[in-house]
Backbone:
């Protein structure tokens, strides 16, 4: 009952005219920032943080959280319409969102993304409201062995699905892990895999540069080849009847949405995890439990609903360790944490007691911002559809320019722009050879996290791998991951041990 009273007080704060205006502006700005390749919520919040010093701390956090929420919604727009992930959190949306747009189902994909984001965000805020303290304690129970087991499970879902060529999937994962290791060794601090001693590799390979290269440049080259110079863009249409049909189709994706919502929220509360691993894991798990896993990657609404619900749920989940423990759950919440310190607020358990207006005003605003983001996204669908009606002779140069801007904005280094072009050509060649790209993307996202968790675990256990089986949570997750890896390999074993038919 006390929580409901506090939540009611939070809604009163959120519905103050100034805070409502801040939420509306924040969601609109975030939607634009999320849709622009190379920007993303981290850059948006960092750039606009100084503007918050002219309003009280509660209004400031409400404004920045609305930008964060809007950016999570906006990332799907360019992923679906142009095949370029607006941010790393929207990479998994590209897997099925873009094929749906090319089949003339851009409106369905956008509606699915908006509603799944809304459901994921709402579920995560409810969990945040009712279970903040116990979930924070559960997150603390996840040490390096549990984190590595979770990363292993994410890789295993891609291997254990059975729809892709298993050897090619392994190759894709391994090449992604190699790229994730470029830069400085996380333990010794020594440079490694610095190709040809080029200094630009010392800072590692930026994931957003890789993603834009693969799904921007690579997709554009593939489309040009398929068209043989005469590209016919999808005939995207939008009527009120199609909108209603799109909303009705949302019911068919409820399982993927629920998986994304709960998994994304839980991954979000893990320190240093964030929305990108959560969305990729949700995509893999949704594909694993789907009745039609073969449809994933070819344009299915489930493949849009899972990552979109997950990244919105994770964005809320990442605020939990920031507020309750003072540990940022994502790069964006790290900036929010810095803002709180500047405003004179100390994150931690006492924050809920000493600054109830700040905390519950933020929680109340998350409910309202979620609604604003949904309405803005749906109302702007006609404008998004208009993009697909542009002739490809105009659209291709626009995509190329956006890729260049996004690749440079990520690190402001021309080395990464050239790297992005190389990745685009490599992705095009891998696609011609029928190599799956999603496992490579997952590997470069999770590679650094998995390596640090693995090495920390082995240091704790003095080199014994049994640490991944001795601990209850890590053991159960590791066993599930190994089962998923081994089961598809059995069919290759059967090919070699199958007895030859008797000769007549």
Residues:
């Amino acid at each position: 009952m006390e929580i409901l009273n506090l939540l009611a007080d939070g809604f009163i704060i959120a519905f103050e005219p100034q805070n409502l205006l801040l939420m509306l502006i924040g969601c609109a700005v975030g939607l634009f920032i999320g849709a622009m390749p190379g920007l993303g919520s981290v850059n948006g919040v960092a750039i606009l943080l100084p503007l918050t010093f002219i309003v009280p701390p509660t209004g400031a956090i409400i404004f920045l959280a609305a930008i964060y929420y809007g950016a999570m919604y906006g990332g799907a727009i360019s992923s679906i319409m142009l095949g370029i992930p607006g941010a790393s959190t929207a990479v998994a949306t590209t897997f099925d969102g873009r094929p749906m747009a090319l089949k003339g189902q851009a409106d369905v994909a956008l509606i699915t993304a908006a509603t799944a984001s809304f459901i994921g965000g709402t579920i995560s805020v409810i969990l945040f409201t009712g279970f903040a303290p116990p979930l924070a304690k559960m997150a603390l129970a996840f040490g390096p062995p549990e984190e590595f087991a979770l990363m292993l499970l994410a890789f295993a879902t891609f291997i254990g699905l059975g729809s892709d060529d298993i050897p090619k999937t392994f190759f894709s994962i391994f090449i992604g892990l190699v790229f994730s290791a470029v830069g400085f060794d996380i333990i010794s601090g020594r440079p490694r895999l610095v190709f040809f001693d080029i200094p630009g590799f010392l800072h590692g390979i930026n994931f957003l540069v890789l993603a834009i290269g693969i799904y921007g440049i690579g997709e554009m080259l593939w489309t040009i080849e398929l068209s043989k110079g005469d590209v016919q863009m999808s005939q995207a249409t939008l009527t009120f009847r199609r909108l209603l049909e799109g909303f009705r189709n949302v019911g068919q994706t409820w399982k993927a949405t629920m998986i994304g919502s709960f998994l994304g929220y839980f991954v979000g509360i893990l320190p240093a995890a964030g929305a990108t691993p959560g969305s990729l894991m949700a995509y893999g798990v949704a594909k694993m439990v789907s009745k039609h896993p073969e449809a994933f990657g070819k344009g299915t609404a489930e493949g849009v609903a899972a990552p979109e619900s997950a990244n919105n749920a994770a964005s809320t989940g990442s605020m939990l360790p920031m507020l309750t423990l003072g540990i940022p759950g994502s790069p964006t919440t790290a900036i929010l944490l810095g803002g709180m310190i500047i405003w004179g607020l100390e994150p931690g358990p006492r924050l809920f007691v000493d600054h109830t207006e700040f905390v519950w005003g933020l929680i109340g605003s998350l409910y309202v911002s979620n609604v604003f983001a949904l309405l803005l996204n749906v109302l702007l669908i006609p404008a998004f559809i208009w993009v697909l009606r542009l002739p490809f002779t105009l659209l291709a140069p626009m995509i190329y320019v956006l890729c260049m801007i996004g690749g440079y904005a990520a690190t402001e280094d021309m080395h990464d722009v050239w790297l992005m072009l190389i990745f685009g050509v490599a992705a095009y060649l891998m696609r011609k050879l029928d190599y799956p790209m999603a496992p490579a993307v997952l590997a470069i996202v999770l590679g650094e996290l998995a390596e640090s968790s693995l090495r920390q675990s082995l240091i704790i256990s003095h080199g014994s791998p049994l640490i991944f089986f001795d601990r209850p949570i890590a053991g159960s997750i590791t066993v599930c991951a190994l089962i998923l890896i081994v089961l598809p390999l059995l069919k290759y074993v059967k090919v070699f041990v199958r007895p030859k038919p008797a000769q007549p």
Q: What stands out?
A: The chain has one domain: 2-488. The mean pLDDT is 79. The first strand starts at residue 183 and ends at 184. Residues 2-488 form one domain.
